[in-house]
Predict the 3D structure of the following.
Amino acid sequence: MKRVVSARAKLKKAMAAVLTTAVIGGSVFGIGQVIACGPFFEEAVFHHELHPDLPLKLFAGGNLGILQPDYARSYLVVAYRHLTGKAVTTEMNKQFTLVWDSRLSASMDPDYRDLTDTWLKARKAVAETKLDRIETYKYVDYSAFLNINSDAFLTASQTLKSYISKYGAKDKRTTDWVAAQDLVFAGGGDSYNNKVKPVAPNPLPESADAELRSDREYQIASFHFYAGDFDKAIAGFRKINEDKQSRWNKLARYLIARSIARKATLAKASSEELAEALTILKEIRESDESKDLHDAAARLISFIRVRTEPVERARELIAILEGDTAGADYRNALSDLTWVMDRYAPSREDDDGEESATKSEPKESPLDDDLSRWVFNFQATDAASADLAFKRWEAADEVHREPWLLSLISKLKADDPRVEAVLEAAARVKSDSPAYPTVTFHRVRLLETKDEKSAYAAVAEILGSLGEKLPPSARNLLSDQKLGLCKSFDEFASLVEARPAEIAWDNDAAALPDGQLEDYEKKQSFSVYPPRFTNRAAILINKRLPLSALEKLATHKSLGQDQRLNIVQAAWTRAVLLKDDKAADRLTAQLLALRPQLKNELTAYSTAKSPALKDFLAIDIILKNPAMRPYVRAGLPRQSKFDEIDSYRDNWWCDEELKDDNARISCLSAAEQTQGAEEYKKLIAMGTAPNLLVDRVMAYYAVAPRDPRLAEALHLAVRSTRYGCTNDKTTQYSKKAFQALHKGFPKNPWTAKTPYWF
């Protein structure tokens, strides 16, 4: 059956492609955030798919959790270092984390916010015009990159300080320089998508002071650089480089090379230009007079070389990343190496958001070192990748054996003839190995259907020994496994809730929290959120538990108070829909305790004698409370109030069958599992909420057409067809309720409020 992919899912897939193949070029260029249309909602993320849990420095330090094949390759490169037994120093950790934070936040520069503010404050003391912010990003279609880095604002602040010192804050020479600098920074993009072309500052006349003229020439060349007119920028910086008296003479030589590199990235530069840029940068690196530019020149050299001689440069970068050289630029090495990998490796993006297509390793990649082969192999999903992993694992020495075992076990299916040998090896992986959580997760996955006892023992062991030391994503994945293998209902009840790995916005494929990532990196531990039902727990509860077990769960001591209403309303609604009056009566007291606002309605329901009236009053309660549904909700609670219509149709329930996800609960008896499956089948057969609610109200209308309470109920039934999940039959139901209301209660106020059906 073809899966229907939501617009939200497609958006996430598109953003994932940007995040996993983002190009960060030293201090030159980076792909930025994707801009999309709202509305957006917060969601609980129980495990990350594209990156490890925050703070990322814990991952860099070796707490790898359960590695995911969709992690960006930069994470897998660092994981490989840990898996092969190489330590990550504090300085390496810091540099690796800067790569990840800058990519995830669409910034290459952790200082740019502070230095932008520094410039704006300095400017405020001089300029009369108010400027609250500067557009530091440049937009290309629906993505953006950081165009103006922090060094530009630092240089501007220092230059302004020199002007104030020499001329004074209110001198015309100072204020003119600031006005020109405003235009320079506006060249970065003063309107969305650069639809309004910025204007360059005017050159100063020959009669002006030589230093002022050279400063203005630097501003004009910088403007062209930020505006993307690189030929003019290069020409401007060449002229400045020829002026030995200009304070920008030495920097201009570097900026010629930088402009060529930016041109090559965003437009097209000739091989001669790139050769010139490399010559300039190497000369800067060899010059004692340019020590302050050595690091920037080295990054730019690497940036160009990974594009002009990628294989040779990649080998050098791998040597850096696998080595322990003090003072090495690990940040740039990781960034540039993964750029080369992304050049040769297939995209991780799925076509149009459909079910995951089989991924293979790059066919013509010249990167044949063990690190690159392992990264590519771990991300591949085809049969050939499993065969290669098996061969590599068998031939590997002790250092490389566990990484290849990890890749191999992540690909195997339970019926693979190699499983037994792999499971034996997996059982020998020690608990202090960085590979242990990933290998154990897949070991349990393979054992679930063939040896539940061993699977349970393995997952219980890791949760018992590591527990809170595990990243939340890993802990939740393992807890979900244990949930299906539970030995008792008490154990099941204790596992249905978990703390999310993150609370994020649903438009964000990276599932990042609000705030700046550098603030999260200051934390020493993972974020802690209130427990919620996990996605798998919700599937098991909704699809596998019979009503009797739902009742039992509703009163279980393990259930947190936040989730109690979630389960009680589901159990009560399910009992009503299945017309199990005894169960509904037992649950009514619990629902009343949690929703005292329903006292009058629930009392009337409890005391009703006629089965038809009792059913009508129950349906009326559901109609008045759009949060009610016969299912529990995973993650965060509904955003609208319990008794309010949600404007985005998060009301009642739909008729879409829940994805099975091979869900089962070992602690249920065969009879309970059969009963749960039958009840779920009946609920699905009832269809979407509006159709069912109309049908049940109309059933009462047929036996008591004069009951005055019907007027409001019919109005609410019609309303449900506007704000609930609909299908091709809903309009028929809506019209039926509308006609009954207008025929039976022509002068009723509720009829006046119902001028249409839907």
